[in-house]
Amino acid sequence: MSSEPETSGGTGGVDETDDRTLTTLGGAGDTAEVPLKVSGLEKHFGGITAVDGVEFEIDKGSMTGLIGPNGAGKSTTFNCITGTHKPDGGRVEFNGQDITGLEPYQVADRGLVRTFQIARELGEMTVLENMMVAPKHQRGEALWRSVLPYARNSVNQQEQEILERAWETLEFFDIDHLANEYAENLSGGQRKLLELARALLTDPQMLLLDEPFAGVNPSLEERLLEHIHELRDQGYTFLIVEHDMDLIMENCEKVIVMHQGRILTEGTPEDVRNNEDVIEAYLGGEV
Amino acid sequence: MSDDESGGEYGQSTEEQRAVVMGIDFRNDGLMLLTMLLGIYIIYLLAGLVIGFPFRGLMNQIGQLTFWIAVFAMASLALNLHWGYTGLFNIGIVGFMATGVYVTGILSKPVFGSGTSAAEIGGFGLPLWIGIIGGTVAAGLLGLIAALPALRLRADYLAIVTIALSEIVRFSLLSDSLSGHEIAGYRVGLGGGDGVILDYQDPLESLIRALSAPFDLILGEQGWLWNDVYLGIVVDFVANFIPNNPKPVVDNFAYSAVLLLILGGFYVVIRRMGNSPFGRVLKAIREDEDVTNALGKNTNMFKIKSFVVGCALMGLVGILWFGTQGSVTPNTFRPRITFYIWIALIIGGAGSNSGSVMGGAVFAAFLFQGPRYFKNVIETALGNPEAPSSFGQAMLPVSNGDVVPFLLYTLDSIRQLQLFMMGVVLIVLMHRRPDGMLGHRKEPASSIPLTRPIKRSGGGDTVATDGGETDE
Amino acid sequence: MGASSTYDRARSQIVEKPMTAVLGIIAVLLVFDLVRQLATGNLTIARMMSLVLDGVLRGLVIGLAGIGLSMTYSILNFANFAHGDYITAGAFSGWATTYVIAGGFGSAANIGSLALVGSGGSVFGGALGINAVQTPLAVLAGLVVSGVFTVALALAIDKFIYKPIRGSGGIPLLITSVGVAFALRYVIQFVFDSGTRGVTNTGSLPGIRPNVIDGTVAVTAHDVLLILVAGGLMLGVHILLQRTKLGKAMRAMSDDEALARITGIATERVIRSTWIIGGGLTGVSGFMFVLWKGTISWNDGWLLLLLIFAAVILGGIGSVYGAIAGGLVIGLTASTAVIWIPSGFARAAAFGVMILVLVVRPQGIFAGRSTA
Q1: pLDDT value at residue B28
Q2: What interface predicted TM-score (ipTM) does this complex get?
Q3: C1 lies in a domain?
């Protein structure tokens, strides 16, 4: 599980968090240039079509925003990609592998990890325990290893490594002072940070963030953004569903706009901003 | 990080190391538990001595008390694995116990033949230890069968499914059509409503004889530990105090002591399961299954494992509990036994292992054995008076100001009233203290102490401990 | 369009829902076996009809008690495990009244023995000549008292036990209700003792035995009365839900409590009404159940409870009509199962049906619209 330290290309940050690099986060692998490819995705609920033939590709190491008015099908699309919902049609490929209709844990296992719209912390566990759940394929997850005396030694060894990684990541996100706090006692913004930090410990290649800035105060929002940019620079790919259009326009290099279950348009923030359909969709619906 | 770092470099004070033995932390909860147990025994002894309970009866009570404490603590621990750790709402505990007891009985009962009455059924005549393993495995298997479809369900649905399952088990045991059959030349069955006579070798004797094997080899004897040590020395010694037939009393004590040892085993195993990455995932499932799944954990697999292991342990508790009772009938296994164990767990605090043990002990001492002991003591003190046979006869004299018959009736009905009291205790607990005595859930979800790792300086890439940030 | 697409659809249904397909096959096999048994004379048509009648009557009791459980389950959001003991409490309160009246307020036997429903074998219902025809007033009074008493009991328990912790969620409430169940059950046992006793005089009970093809089917006056009472009350609930403002509010509450609160429905009042209606029906069902089967025991309600849960889940929690339909299905299952399996497993079969429904279709087979 131990990985080589990777120094991020000297970001000229002034904040003190910037010189704390995540030594153990390896960044994304490099199997394909297009890690995520969605084609013809469909999802119906009863008679309602929530997602209707959605197609898009996400470039490696990019930060893409997925926006659209309420009920446009963004969250459903997300849920279909990550396995929370089983799509009724279409195909989802990740790193060239078909992941359509897999269970959420299988999707996560392949390096595509999501966060939730409303931060869902594991309340009656400490922040540190929350973090330590995340690393994949832990030796001690096997029942017999956690019980048998000799095997348990190897578990302890790995636990030490996981503990260190968890602390480092908490330090990176500046929430290490909360490590032994119960997660249910955290503020809304701190929970969002915890969720992102926890997702990182699964060694993802790509992160799907569902409204990561909802309910976060402005100063924390800035910090969260900084972290996301920094992680992007380290090679992680991001797809962000967001309600706040300006936030997406300022921070993403590519924007996908959904409306009534379909892709309305996609392109650079500039293109999207000037697109007639988008303006209409937003004015016609709710901003 | 890198592999060349040895464990000694991590901060763990010597005090902590001394307090943590085999993964058991004796610093607070353990001490509390020991103090409480001591208190319980003192109360029992004092009550008996003050009333002038005969010595033999007193010793029997103490042995019984120990038996119940061990049984309820073990069952409570197994349930804690389900409910406290994984959030699995199992109210069919008694079904798994019944499965364990019956399978052990069938496997280890002597083969049908001469000596058994025609109405009775026989068994396969296997050694008792095979029977016990078989019973435990069978309970686990029943858990597996239930788990495969049912674990996807909401907590309240799982509750209904498990209790229905436990009743299905009981109906099956009651059924005439399964009461006795010829299987591969063996006449075996479930005995129907008459139940099964557990006429296999006494578990205690069986255990001591098994332990005796190495000594027998050296000394060239048969069952040396049983014949010469247990019967020859221990029982003989006790005969000084209880001249008339001391063996049952000693057996009672010895078996209870064995159960306490097994309880220790339960505690260590379940605690280890809890304080490990495995237990961490279980806790995460309890808190939010979707999130845990989205983090890449095959939550169903974890739930199944937790459920099956818990069910197997419940089966084992059943075997240890009913295995020495001589015989069982299906109606022994009514849902009230499940209810007992839930109360024990809730008293102690779901999610805490030391709490489970404590809850088991409190339940055994004050709610289960306590009222019966109280009845015994009072009746002895009053010279075994005749109680009225019905509520009406008890109430009649009350109108004339005579409450004695009513009190006697109450005392005589203590077995019903104690269930009433348990119900009330459960209600009060849920109102006042839903987390129980130790339901703080502070037991760490890791196999190592979760303190900030102390690292070598000079690594350059991390800040180890910079002052103001640590407020643990 | 054509046959091939229908075939494809059927095939994909089987692939997607193997459980449903297996169930279908089992159902077909059971029907075949039934036909075989009827053809070979293993089972007479008259006996089958007797079993069906028994199932329907049992189903009416389950359905009647199930309405209350279903309503509280959906509106208060917890499975009330004490519901079975409300049935027992209702039955005992009603039968104590019936005994006292039928016993001439102490003229036929000791009044205490009467009030304790002949506890300890002190007086027998048969000796008092209790049945719906000989002592109609006593039975009617018992019926009313059983309903009223259970309403009072349900309201008191809600006020002192459930209401204070209503905010803490369904599971703590469920656990608490188990405590209530045990407390109630064993108080009843303490007062009325643990004996099962006969309460009716069946010897003088009028009934008919019409000839049916190859035998006779017995129908007693109590069977008819059960159908009338249960049917009438169910109809009453139907009218209440459809025609009154209270009924609308209750339907809204069971759909979404938070929304109902926002839209100004007085939730506390609705909750009280739920207990009143549910409690009343439950108590009456307990009384009728005892009248119909002729014996009373301290754990009657508990033994019925799981069957009621089965009915409620089968019908879809929150659906009153579902509870009635589910009750009939469960009642018929429990009664007619003996056609195929040993009688010891009849109840197990009903539980098996419930477990299957929970696993295959947890929203219930009649679900779709809740409460309405």
Answers
A1: 66
A2: 0.85
A3: no
